[in-house]
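R.M. (postdoc): so does anyone remember the format we settled on? I'll just put the structure tokens first.
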């Protein structure tokens, strides 16, 4: 019963929101409304309550793939098409605003230019090897060894002079 009601609601909503649209069922049982001309999508899925649906909105990327949902809301199914359309327009506006924001600069965020060396990284082993070849890496470089030898020499000189002078 919920599936048929959700399908009918999605058809009505699609007609209110966009002239050109595609409505189809997701694997999970929800309904998706795609507006290719506006490069946005809306998903309607049953929520936790009996009379509630989860509404999600996102962008359609180049090539037709969909980006993850940018925003979501839970709406009573009995609220009607008008309330549901208003909620969808708000979510679509939020998705559009998120897409318009520039991506944060990696340098400003404090990240390094190169790939991060983590255990979960797919190429972490090759990244570590190339970092060692380039002189950047976890292993002690020549300059660090020079400083270490100088510090040990100063400590040895101090110990020698203390032992001989008293």
């Amino acid at each position: 019963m919920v599936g048929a009601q959700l399908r009918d609601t999605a058809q009505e909503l699609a007609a209110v929101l966009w002239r050109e649209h595609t409505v189809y069922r997701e694997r999970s049982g929800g309904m998706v409304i795609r507006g290719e001309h506006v490069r946005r999508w809306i998903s309607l899925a049953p929520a936790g309550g009996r009379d509630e649906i989860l509404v999600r909105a996102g962008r359609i990327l180049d090539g037709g793939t969909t980006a993850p949902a940018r925003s979501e809301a839970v709406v009573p199914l009995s609220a009607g098409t008008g309330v549901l359309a208003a909620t969808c327009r708000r979510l679509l506006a939020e998705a559009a605003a998120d897409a318009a924001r520039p991506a944060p600069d990696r340098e400003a965020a404090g990240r390094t230019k190169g790939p991060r060396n983590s255990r979960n990284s797919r190429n972490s082993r090759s990244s570590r090897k190339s970092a060692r070849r380039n002189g950047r890496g976890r292993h002690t470089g020549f300059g660090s060894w020079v400083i270490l030898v100088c510090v040990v020499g100063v400590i040895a000189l101090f110990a020698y002079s203390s032992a001989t002078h008293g």
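R.M.: ...and that's the designed sequence above, right after the tokens. Also worth knowing: The helical segments are 2-17, 81-100, 124-133, 142-165. The beta strands are 22-25, 31-35, 40-46, 52-59, 71-76.
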